[in-house]
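Protocol step 4 of 6: structure prediction from sequence.
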Amino acid sequence: MILCLSLVVAMLPFASACAPKSQPAKVLKVGMMNPTTGPAAEKGSVMTHANLDAIKYVNDELGGVGGYLIEPLPLDSRYDATQAVTIVKRFMDEGCLLFTTASSKEMSAAMESANREGFPGIACFSSPVLYRPPMHIYGQTPDYGDDALAFANFYMKNIWKGQGKPKFALHLLNNPTGYGARDAFRARADELGIEIVSTDEHAATTISEMESLTRIKEKQPDVLFISSTPAPTAVIIKNAKDLGMYPGVTIGCAHASFTKKLIDLAGADVVEGVYGAFPTVLWGEDVPGMAKMTEYCQKLHSDDYENMDYITSWAQSLIVAKILELAVGDAGYDVLSKGDMAAWRDVEAQGIQKLKGYDVGGLQGPVSYTAGDNRLTKYNRVYRIVDGKIADPSEWVEAPLIKYEDFEWFGK
């Protein structure tokens, strides 16, 4: 008996070695960078939830893409440029096929190394400096310059009733979120027939802009245009109200701040009547993709319901899935699984650049690549806050291509 047991024990290593080993899952890796902590966490946490909820939907209900699951690598940028540079290197080192960011600030820090290596990236919210001239970085939605021009055109057609040129005062976040709007007004103010009477900057951590707004008030502007994130935008609008500027002046916002979080932070009574550009539909609109997104949001992250940042990042993940579907169908899994430069080239050439009229369930404008224009969606709406809700959507407006690199001041 003892001899038999000894033989069994002796044979175990051999049997283990001969037993079939489980194969690693075949996955397609994607890096996802969002500021889940830090001064823009009110946006980044919601956007992370939506990115991952949509990937879960694609994997669990659609079986992934081309039969392969998407494996996200979500990392927190803390809205810090140094952190973003470190993260994009990690994405490349870990075999990600492409990467996404929530913000233009993250992408502006990551883009140098990404462009140098040919590693494709998609910014949910973008600024012209990210892709003018076009390289390997793409904008999911119209950029902050497009926002500025969409609002200015809307204002001239629907609000302005005075004589001569209306006076615009700009209050801009001191990074690409603000600079994109600044550059658009530089390029097109004369053509629009508006006068820029002041340009002020603020930090993401600002707690008071009374001094800057006091100076702005002396200019007697017709419009205060803010391109920023929700927290500082709330500060600016509250200060404008305290100074008696608002109501009175028309306030317009670029899309980074124009979401439910702005209303929550500033108070519904403070932001009543404020306008903003945004590149998606409203919650509850009758479009094909609304029901599934709503189901996942309410099931997994109910606090994010009615926050339009959730819509943008849910759509971003669906766009990523479509890109991978196109690329794996053309290049094959064996090529993409390496996650190297050759794989990145195929994802860009056979995935991103093959996007033609992809309908993201009607949640935003159609997604297409056009040579020389790295904005994947060109359509914006202008909304207004009414009774504590973002409402009154305008028609969809297509943003024209502006070759900012042709202006000698661009990027300086």
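Step 5 (inspection) to follow. The chain has two domains: 27-142+287-377, 145-278+398-406.
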